[in-house]
Give the backbone structure.
Amino acid sequence: MAHVLLLEPDGLLGETYQKALELSGHSVDRCREAQSAVHAIDTRLPDVIVTELELAVHNGIEFLYELRSYGEWQKLPVVVLSHLPAVDTGLMRALWGELNIAAYHYKPLTKLKDLVRSVESVAVPAI
């Protein structure tokens, strides 16, 4: 199964997502802020990253740009799980393409099984 980095600022939601992923056989490192996520990735490369876009200090978009600035992290699959709805515009499609977003979930409409399914479909074990 996959090693997941979960970047979720809300403690209760983070715990819920972590348990759902672990019950599905995945290992999870959970962070609440972007800088600790960068440190966690540097310490142990995940197979997939699940991130919220609404973060304190550095927002999720800034985190993704920083992530993609490192050559060895450019291909890491990213699943966005956010309170922000995805808006289907040319600009947003270009942004997601540039940041290599594998899947996008709007939290109010996402079931835990859908999150797990997305993680399993995009995770590529690190070499």
